[in-house]
């Protein structure tokens, strides 16, 4: 689904998640260096990501979307095959 098909709240949540993720990436120091954010701020960021995900799930459920759907390729092998079984005709 393109962004034009989303509600205003869904667009806000999507942008909020993206901006927050970029802030986290920019603030993350190289390995071995001290993190500039306090533990309480890191915990608050995790809680915010969880709230965003929870609300997105609620909105998807209200709209009737299945959040477990995954993309697939047309040339991907099928997981099941239909087998037709023919019964022999009865001899009278």
Walk me through the topology.
Blueprint: H1 8-27, H2 39-63
Structure description:
Helices cover 49% and strands 0% of the residues. By secondary structure, it is an all-alpha fold. The chain has a domain at 7-63. Helix 1 packs antiparallel against helix 2. The longest helix has 25 residues, at 39-63. The mean pLDDT is 85.
Concise account of the structure shown:
The chain has 92 residues and is mainly α.
What labels describe this entry?
2 helices, 92 residues, single chain, mainly alpha
| Radius of gyration, in angstroms, nearest whole number | 24 Å
Number of helices: 2
Low-pLDDT stretches: none
Strand content: under 5%
Shape: elongated
Estimate percent helicity. Answer: 40-55%
The assigned structural class equals: mainly alpha
The major sheet is characterized as: none
N-to-C SSE series? HH
Mean pLDDT: 85
Number of strand elements: 0
Termini Cα gap: 59 Å
